[in-house]
Write a structure and sequence with these properties.
Elements: H1 2-12, E1 20-24, H2 29-45, E2 48-55, H3 61-76, E3 80-85, H4 88-95, H5 99-117, E4 122-124, H6 129-142, E5 155-158, E6 161-164, H7 172-181, H8 198-213, H9 217-243, E7 247-248, E8 255-259, H10 260-263, H11 268-282, H12 292-303, E9 308-312, E10 318-322, E11 325-329, E12 340-343, E13 348-350, E14 356-362, E15 372-376, E16 384-388, E17 394-395, E18 404-405, H13 406-412, H14 417-420, E19 424-427, E20 433-436, E21 440-441, E22 453-459
Parallel strand pairs: 1-2, 1-4, 2-3, 4-6
Antiparallel strand pairs: 5-6, 7-8, 8-11, 9-10, 10-11, 12-16, 13-14, 14-22, 15-22, 16-19, 17-18, 19-20, 20-21
Length: about 475
Amino acid sequence: MEQKVHSFIKKHELIRPGQTILAAVSGGPDSMALLHYFCAIKEEYQLQLHVVSIDHGLRGEDSYEDLAYVKRMCEQWNVDFTGTSVDVPSYKSMERMGTQETARKLRYDFFKEMMDEKNIDVLALGHHGDDQAETMMMQMVRNATPESIQGIPVRRAFGRGEIIRPFLNVTKDEIIHYLKKHHVEFRVDVSNEETDYTRNAFRKHVIPYFRQQNPKFSQHMQRLSERLRDDQEYIKEQAKEVLKTMDFSSKEERCVRFSIQTFKTFPLALQRSAFHLILNYLYVDQADDISYLHEEMFMDLISEQKSNATMDFPRGLKIIRAYDSVTLTFRIDEDIEPLFKTLQIGETIQLPDGSLLQADWTDRPEEEGTYVYLCDSHHVKLPLVVRTRMNGDRIRVRGMNGSKKVKDIFIDQKIPSDSRNSWPLVTDSNGDILWLIGLKKGGEYIRKPSGKWLRLKYENKADK
């Protein structure tokens, strides 16, 4: 086993001479083998070795005896030791978390404290190849995306340094053989035999079957984990090119917008990877609720023929398609206040988005444009009203017989559905719609009127 671990450490460059190592040791076979192994190599690598052991308070006197045993062995082997006890039941009740989840959080919080206190470079954990196989099989059952089936990482950033797992290429049987060879005793956690926990059930009933089919099953799963991580890392780097085509808001606003047409110019694999990078940004790297079903829903949304569609994701995230535009946001558009303002001649008002609308009389009208409206004053009853749309709104569009629904104009002009409720229009006091600003004009336009012209000017905040 020693040679396999040594080769694994060298392959992944897990240890450098002169580093300070914090080994997490519970007293069980895996962690005791880890402690013994580091004691054996610390002179060769000139390592400063520290041990931390935590009593989770879940097994009464047994768990305390585990900690006491680790302390005695550290004294015997002349290794710096720190032990502590954490109150899992109380924290679990307060935070409404599961037992294992609570224990893990408290454990890793203390690891970080120790790394800061003792200027630790590396936290070493005793996870082995069978743990890797169990983890990956559990991930396969729960999910079906490559991002979710990568297993336990060999190394990852943690606290002020990183976590390493030098035993991931060896099995539990090899560890037990190593301990017997070096006459190292270890503690047994009887709760590992209970199948109430999912991992224990996989350990006792699932993994043994696969190992019967292939004795090297754990080693194969470790190789698969490394391959998946390498492949996904490359794809993720390429997918960052997709993100460069998108509009990202601040993390406080948590909103992303992009063009479907541009998005589809990238290969499908990069589209999928970009989707997960977006979710990591929006959920701040806590997108645990996302499954392959959500990915399929998203891909269907950008592929279907519907011009407008909305999709709800976990924790209030909305995905909104409006023609070629897709927006992912936590903001709720229903919070927009309806607009209703009176506009007097000679007055300029500011709209909610900061845009300006001015009304005046003129006897020397300029040419009309997208944001300039002219109308014969004899066909307008004052005062004017600026408001957002209402159900049933219709406008008599210039040059067209009859009237047309404002709703249909929005659809024809491909106005995103999330913009329609805030789009301003101008009516006279009779309620006749004179101008759906920037889109369609109503009211009479006579080239040689007998009198004054009503002139409206709109100034978009983006043009200011």
